Every structure is written in C-alpha cells, then in structure tokens.
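Study this pair:
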Amino acid sequence: MSGDVCIVGIGIHPFGRTDGVSGLDQGVFAVRQALADAGVAWQDLQFAYGGSDAAGNPDTMVERLGLTGMQFINVRNGCAAGGSALFSAQMAIKSGEFELGLAVGFDKHPRGAFNALPSEYNLPDWYGDAGYMVTTQFFANKITRYMHLHGISRTTLGRVAEKAFRNAVHAPHAWRREPVALDEILEGAMVSDPYSKYMFCSPAEGGVALILASEKKARELGKPLIRLKAAAMRTRPPKSFEVFAPSVEIGGGTATATQIASAAAFEMAGIGPQDIAIAQLQDTECGAEIMHMAENGFCKDGEQEAWLAEGRTEIGGALPVNTDGGCLACGEPIGASGLRQVYENVVQLRGDGGGRQVPGDPRTAYTHVYGAPGVSAVTILER
C-alpha cells in the first residue's frame, strides 16, 4: 500500500472541570466533532482505538454512537495512552487492512494527585513510604538534579509557566486561560521545592478524537493532506532515570525513553530537529518541558536557560513550544492528553490557530508525550 496515513478530522471537548458530564460523554462529544470535521459518518469508520485511565472503557461509546459492529480496541498505557492509541490506529491503516478509522481518548480524574500504588509498577512499599509515588515530589527531585548539573535557574522554570498561561488565553479548549505574571509564579505557594503551585499541571477532564485515513481515502474526501510521517512509542532503556524507575546508576545511562523514541521518529520521517516548525512537549511540570527540549534533540542540556530568556520557544520564536499552553494550562486527563497535542498541531498546520497561530506558514509539527514508568510516544506531522 502506498502513501501516508493522514489526519482528516479532529474533535475536542474542552479540558478542565465539567460537572455533570462524564468522561465518556466528553469522548463522544469529541468523536462527533471529528466526524463532522472530516465529513464522514460513524458508520463509515472501520475501526477504533481508544484510551482512558479512569473514566471507563472507551469501546462502550458504541452504545452512544451506533452499533455498527466495528472493531474497537481499548488501550491503557499510562500517560502514553493517547499516543499509543494513535500509533495503533496508524499501523492498522499502514498495514492495508483498513482505510478509515478513529483514535480517541478521554478521562475524568478526581481532584488531587494521581493515586498510583507501588505494587502496580513492581516497586517495593518503601518507595511509596518515602513519598515518591507522589509525582510532584519525584519530579521536583529530578529537576533539582538537572538544574545543578546544567546551570538552569528557577527563573527559567517560571518562564515556562508564564508562557503556558499566556498561550492558553487564545486556546478555547484550555482550562486555565488567564495570564499569570512571572513574579506571581515564582512567589506562589511552594508544593515541592523548587516548584510553586503554578509550575505543575493538574489531573483534569477532557476528550480528543482524531479521524485517520489512507492517503487514497483522504484524497477521495477532498481533505487537505496532513500527513502522519512518524509515530513511535518506546519503553525505557537500561540505566535511564525515569518516573517510577527510581534510581541513577553510577556512570548513568546512555539514553532515555524519550531520546530513543525521538530518534526513531526522526528516522522514520527522514528529517531532523532543525526541520520542525512547532513542538508540543510533555510539560506535566515546568522542568519536564525544559528537560524534554534537550531529550528530543532541539537543544543541548543547559541551553534552555538562554532559549527561554531570549523567547525562542514563544509563538513567534524559532521553535514555538506548547502553543495551546500544554499540560500546565490544559491539565492532564491521561487518555486525552497526548491526542490533544496532535489536535493542536493539526490546528496549527491548517492555519486555524487564531491568536495563538504560529506565523510563517508552518509545514512540520512534533509531539512528545511521556509517562510512567518511563515510556515516550512521539509523532511528526507534515503538510
């Protein structure tokens, strides 16, 4: 089968808190919006992959959308659930088995931190007793080490959050859409040193749906060709220091899950980091965006200090990062979050970003999602 897999329809239910609307409701809302965007009917879809962590089984949405007998497979892969659903969907089309299908993700998390248990990750009880199952604490320790090794200031952490809230003002699907001054971010209540309350995302609610088609089918539909040039998902290599993989061996590791997923995606797409016009990088907290800038190959460790100070990751900068405010402004409903990044990139490549639109007619876009216990998923889009 020749040609690329294309994204022909996108839909999103706003992120945040929506009382009285279930996670499944939000997923169904997103699917209906994506179907309308693609100009196809539910019964036209041949298959679906769906991800949700805390809001039920995605395949049960057939009760709401139509009992067509379609193949619908549930995906549960932590924070990489959305990316994994998308990877699976594009493989189903690349194989030649299908021409038109769906990747969907949704979630509705309770307030407070994620309640992960050590036994779920093959960890001893002492790891939970020490507080490291609370990811705010783990990531605070991880960024403290990184700041020490590579000369990153706390002001740079604050600049990441400041940018996120400023970008989200122009993103209708974002949760937190008010700008916050840098001083307020830095002086906010401390959660886990060096992170203030503005420097973390929150578990949240939302739904995203993407309609995928073969290139032949996309041309039949008359849609602009947004090509999925790469989709890669990788688990951690030896000695890498990852969330819920809690040790640093003497000598350190040679790579991380993100580095090997990123390298695989660039190889598939036949381009390099210098060719990317927009990037959505996992930013569950400010330090994650900073570390992931380097792990995905966009800069060297330590260069982020200058990048943020010079505005290189702003909407009009050399590499706009997290143009809709990322997880910091949108929150992180696990099943939907990685698909939100792809949704945002399609909006940008179509030129539909409004006040957050990246200038210069961008033609390439990159997403990266990261989760426990050290898994990363990367996509590259081209038009």
Observations:
- The CA atoms of residues 116 and 133 lie 6 Å apart.
- The first strand starts at residue 5 and ends at 16.
- The chain has 13 helices and eleven strands.
- The chain has a mean pLDDT of 94.
